[in-house]
Amino acid sequence: MEIRNYQASDERGWVRCRVLSFLDTAYYDDVHREKEKFENPSIELVAEKDNQIVGLIDIEYDTEDEKVCSEEGTGGMIWHLAVHPDYQNEGIGSQLMERASEEAIKLNLEFLEAWTRDAGNSAAWFEKNAYRQVDEYYHLYLSDQDMAHTVQPGDDNLQPLYMFAQYTGDNIEQFESIERKYKCMCYIRNL
């Protein structure tokens, strides 16, 4: 396996790896047809094995003019960390993280920040890799039935059928009947 910088010619393999790696997670519907472009500088690495992209990590980092991370100091936001399902549990994610951390240290970044959901094993993976939880809120996916009970009526010409929402309040219990409800947690690792 080779870990190297992302190249434009990797885009199709990158998208395929990301989609397949998210398929059995709480992010299964966060599908993109092309790789995101970042406004700030970034560390973009891929793991290649058997002539295909089997892992990826994208970290956009703070500059003097533009902050990406929520914490004080100069950090890097991990937007994507994914390993193709056929290659998981081989240490590829850890190797990508190690290489990205080395690059971040060279850039004088003070920390890496990642947001993930409580479903699946990603939170445990970050904790195992020296990240500490510093914040949380909820992601809610409301169906039309959910919204009939929780969303106040407004414009009769607008009839939402589905809603994705962030909830930062203290009364998450009011949404106990919502099937797709995830705690979204922020993890920080000092470099």
TrEMBL record:
<dbReference type="GO" id="GO:0016747">
    <property type="term" value="F:acyltransferase activity, transferring groups other than amino-acyl groups"/>
</dbReference>
<protein>
    <submittedName>
        <fullName>N-acetylglutamate synthase-like GNAT family acetyltransferase</fullName>
    </submittedName>
</protein>
<dbReference type="InterPro" id="IPR016181">
    <property type="entry name" value="Acyl_CoA_acyltransferase"/>
</dbReference>
<dbReference type="Pfam" id="PF00583">
    <property type="entry name" value="Acetyltransf_1"/>
</dbReference>
<dbReference type="InterPro" id="IPR000182">
    <property type="entry name" value="GNAT_dom"/>
</dbReference>
<feature type="domain" description="N-acetyltransferase">
    <location>
        <begin position="1"/>
        <end position="152"/>
    </location>
</feature>
<keyword id="KW-0808">Transferase</keyword>
